[in-house]
Design a protein that fits this description.
The complex is a heterodimer of chains A (about 60) and B (about 475). Chain A is mainly α and about 60 residues long. Chain A contains two helices and no strands. The longest helix of chain A has 22 residues. Chain A is elongated, with a radius of gyration of 16 Å. Chain B is of the alpha+beta class. Chain B has a single domain, classed as Alpha-Beta Complex (Amidase signature (AS) enzymes). In chain B, the strands form four sheets. Chain B has an eleven-stranded mixed beta sheet with strand order 1-3-2-8-10-9-16-17-13-11-12, with helices on both faces. In chain B, a hairpin with a 3-residue loop joins strand 4 and strand 5. The radius of gyration of chain B is 21 Å and the shape is globular. Classes of the chains: A mainly alpha (about 60), B alpha+beta (about 475). At the A-B interface, helix 1 and helix 2 of A face helix 10, helix 11 and helix 12 of B.
Chain lengths: ~60, ~475
């Protein structure tokens, strides 16, 4: 297992998903995962009200 | 006749073409041949088209001419040449979706719903248009089919992912095209190519027969060089479709022929905060031009930053999941940049996508509350005009950021909640185009068309053929149009 937690996550998740990543692809996927991690931080801290139904998102 | 018709058609609007055809003053066969001639003459330098359907176009044109001769109504788009992003199904053709993987798919058995509707309105389909691979990008620098060049400066990108659709209209190759918009893929190229683009309310237009990207975010919509042409196309495309589960059961609500909105009839806001952070002087000038014309007041939409981030993650999750079988089986057949973003998206934990959906519902509520004060909101379509082809990053906020990612900064939060948006091209003589998003509450596309007509009448917005192409409108000696597909 790599000491880098994001890389370790990507390796494990790839195995679970049936993906084989070459070294170059692994580097790029890790970089993209870091971007997603940053993005997630932007909205995970929002104090959302209770009862928001994710299934209702397409109802306009 | 062909050379004359070619010049005429490049200058004429779709409405003028249809009017002349309906009155028997122009032959649809001549118009179709002129469009094919012009594509042959000009598109080699732009790369808008990946396929040209010459025989289908001729057959359709003959049928419309026959309808006119026998006194039948040929439809509101009679004889108007149109083209569609190559993720729309066209009967008998392989739907590429910007990929090489889909070349191995069987030809489509029927036209996409919106292609059917254009043809039923009398339009003549002439070809399929370039795009980012699987619609995942904002520049149409397709590694398989080449970049689509911006008609206003061929050294620059056309925007994406519907870059071929925007550039073909901007260059006068056809008056109307169709694209798709998941995070900005109609609005970004419309702005960078200086044409009108409509991303309607989520569920307004059918997506049947359109290759998906992100099911819960995908929209379809038209491009045109005038507000009236965009309205003509939109009216022809509207209507429920029981074969598309996301298409709303709403009647056609026509917008063609509606009067320009009067200034006092519309309460306009101009979005600040996220929507003006990191904006270039060019894009800001365009926004100010619209805001001044609409007498808009400052408006704030809370949560836009979080909404954009949530849209970003959700796009990766849904898009990555969609393509996972090919990512496993044929990873070498993707553009590596597309592949590695899709893989990262697919590998996200499930709670990220669920959280993003909850943010989406919350953010929609913020927008609906703002629409209690305003009837329409204006926002820039992109942070800056078209960038040079091949430039991967730009400086923004003291950092080097990906062009592919940031072109959609201001578009993504709005499509995330399905609001209707009409991008208007700002009149900027001799300068690169910029566009402004006009945003309305759900199902109020009529408000947007009224305002676009008013801004156009006042000279604030409008689309002009690129001066650099005006000398190229006379067709070269005939040869059969060929597919540009590799």
């Amino acid at each position: 297992m790599s000491e880098n937690p994001v890389e370790a996550y990507v390796r494990a998740a790839a195995v679970l998903s049936g993906l084989e990543l070459g070294e170059e692809s692994l580097k790029a996927v890790v970089a993209n995962t870091r971007t997603l991690q940053t993005m997630y931080a932007e909205f995970s801290a929002l104090d959302l009200p209770d009862g928001l139904d994710p299934a209702a998102v397409l109802t306009l | 006749m062909n050379a004359q018709a070619a010049k005429l058609q490049a200058d004429l609007t779709a409405g003028q073409i249809a009017g002349a055809v309906r009155a028997g003053r122009l032959s649809v066969v001549d118009i179709a041949e002129a469009a094919l001639d012009r594509i042959r003459a000009i598109d080699g330098g732009l790369n808008c088209f990946t396929d040209v359907f010459a025989e289908r176009a001729r057959a359709t044109a003959r049928a419309v001419d026959q309808a006119v001769r026998r006194g039948a109504d040929p439809g509101p788009l009679a004889g108007v040449p149109v083209a569609v992003k190559n993720l729309y199904d066209v009967e008998g053709e392989v739907t590429l979706a910007g990929s090489v993987i889909e070349r191995d798919s069987p030809p489509a058995k029927e036209d996409a719903a919106l292609v059917e509707r254009l043809q039923a309105a009398g339009a003549v389909l002439v070809g399929a248009l370039n795009m980012d691979e699987y619609a995942y990008g904002f520049t149409t620098e397709n590694s398989h089919y080449g970049p689509t060049r911006n008609p206003h400066d061929p050294a620059r990108v056309s925007g994406g992912s519907s870059g071929g659709s925007a550039a073909a209209v901007a260059a006068g190759l056809v008056p109307i095209t169709l694209g798709s918009d998941t995070n900005g893929s109609i609005r970004v190229p419309a702005a960078l190519c200086g044409v009108y683009g409509l991303k309607p309310t989520f569920g307004r237009l059918s997506r049947r027969g359109v290759y998906p990207f992100v099911h819960s975010l995908d929209h379809t919509g038209p491009f045109a060089r005038s507000a009236a042409d965009l309205a003509l196309a939109y009216d022809a495309l509207q209507g429920a479709d029981l074969r598309d589960p996301a298409c709303a059961l709403r009647p056609v609500e026509p917008v063609s022929g509606s009067s320009p909105s009067s200034p006092e009839a519309v309460r306009a806001g101009v979005l600040g905060g996220w929507f003006q952070d990191n904006i270039s002087a060019d894009a800001l000038a365009g926004l100010h031009a619209v805001a001044d014309a609409l007498d808009a007041r400052p408006a704030e939409l809370p949560g836009a930053r979080a909404a954009r981030a949530a849209a970003f993650c959700l796009t990766g999750a849904e898009g990555g999941s969609l393509h996972l079988p090919d990512l496993i089986a044929r990873p070498g057949d993707f553009d590596p940049a597309t592949r590695d973003r899709l893989i990262a998206g697919a590998l996200q934990p499930a709670h990220v996508a669920v959280r993003a959906q909850r943010v989406r519902r919350w953010f929609l509520d913020q927008a609906l509350e703002l629409f209690e004060t305003f009837d329409v909101l204006a926002a820039p379509a992109t942070p800056f005009p078209a960038t040079p082809i091949g430039r991967a990053t730009v400086a923004m906020g003291g950092q080097s950021v990906s062009v592919r990612a940031v072109m959609g900064l201001y578009a993504q939060p709005i499509s995330f909640i399905g609001l209707p948006v009409l991008v208007v091209p700002i009149v900027r003589s001799g300068r690169l185009p910029v566009g402004v998003q006009l945003i309305a509450p759900p199902w109020r596309e009529d408000v947007l068309f009224g305002l676009a007509a008013r801004l156009e009448a006042e000279g604030v917005c409008g689309a002009a053929l690129p001066s650099a192409l005006s000398g190229a409108l006379s067709p070269k000696p005939a040869r059969e149009p060929q597919s540009h597909a590799v």
